User: What shape does this take?
Amino acid sequence: MLTALHWPARPLASSSERAAGCLAWLLLLAMVVFIALPLAAILGKALTGEHGEFAGAGPILATLAQPGLERVIWNSLKVALTTTALVVPLAYLFAAAVTRTTMPLKPLFRVTALLPLLAPSLLPGISLVYLFGNQGMLKTWFPDGGIYGFTGIVMGEAFYTFPYAVMILLTALAVGDARLYEAATTLGAGRIRQFLTVTLPATRYGLVSAALVVFTLVVTDFGVPKVIGGQYPVLAVEAYKQVIGQQNFPRGAVIGLMLLVPAILSFLVDRHLHQRQTALVTAKAQPLRPAGGWLIRLLATACCSVLALWLVAMLGTAIAAGFMKLWPYNLAPTLAHFDFDDVDGGGWLAFYNSLKMALGTAVAGSVLVFLGAWCSEKLRVAGTARRTLHALAMLPMAVPGLVLGLGYIFFFNPANNPLHGLYGTMAILVCCSVAHFYTTAHLTAVTALKQLDPEFESVAASLKVPVWLTLWRVTLPACLPAMLEIARFFFVSAMTTVSAVIFLYTPDTALASVAVMNMDDAGDTAAAAAMATLIVVCSGAVCLLLALVSRGILPRSQRWRSTERH
Assistant: This one.
């Protein structure tokens, strides 16, 4: 007679695990309030009439039927497609030169390629005005104001999106299997044939990802077309005009939903490709040696030098203009443009507010992201909360900042909302910034946590060690490099963002990036350049400070990674 098999019962959750489960539910509630509900509010506003009554699809159809909207949509697509076609090949050449050749000055070129990340997207527009505008030093290159419009937007967006494409393609080209190239050479394939049959297929996922990222960033960007767009309308600026200029919130909500479409499609395509992506480098792969011929080194160095010079010239023009009396007629040095209290935009208060918001975003965002990632990856309890938490953490990746800011207006502004008190405060700016950049930080934290053996938690549970103690003494020190990187990402992103906060600031919470736009609108372009310079310098200083902190504390906190035994 068969006896029933009795499997060992799963250990009951400890009190600390139950408390951590409650934390997971609280974090999930916060994500619903600050991410999901604002997006739902946009949809609700798009389905209501001018007096707040439910109108179904009427407002959407009426907005789509507006004369000129078709041209606005086509302009946005044209700019995005042109910028993508320009940036991705240039970024691919740059990344290939850095990873696949032995050219000199690689670290310098890497740093130079990432410099645009330190600046708001308004800065390239200002630089282009100073270089090629009506009073620009090189205005003859684009006579009759030809830089204002399509050409200027594409050039500015290329500067803004170049580092994003480079970061993706550097990763895609960093590894390769030398055996494939040896086999191709044996079969008589030349360099061009090897590139088409080996290199391109191996990096196609990175190429598509870079193209999708660039396309989405351009379609949803507000800063560059606002400064250099002239009479060339695009969707992001049109949404701003409808909400701020005409107070037409239903139509602004509809355009916001339109901005959401390319971002969601890009996200879905990227997820589909990610699922089909297979490992191209196996355990038997042989490391690929970078090409070292003198001609290849020369061409690679020349290519990277030209692109780096372009980036430095764009960044340097805006910085230099902030220190000169009257560009380009009187280039004498001056600090008069840094007297922000004499111009519109919020004065020095705007810069101090940006520092407060960036610090608050870095601290609050780092803590919330790490706790959320830890709950979704390391907890044994609250399975539904953990899975939903991770799913919602992916949502901001497909939501442009302009759309999220619109959602915050529609959700937090109504007086009957219990959270209405947040509207117009520094707290809502911090919440919006954390929500906007949450996904990238979450993925960074999850990647760091996945590197840790899950046996840490099992052993701690068997020894009756509270999960909080394991988190504090083991998990957090092991993930400290990722935490510092997350804090740096949040700070720089909050300092430079425009679209996510353009609808939420008040005169008391004016921000530096928004002040740049307001100064430029008022004709104080030199003051706008000076404020943009402060943003770049501050962002760079914080990155340098965190790098020094890393060098000081990581050798001790990461000693466990060393193979040496002491």
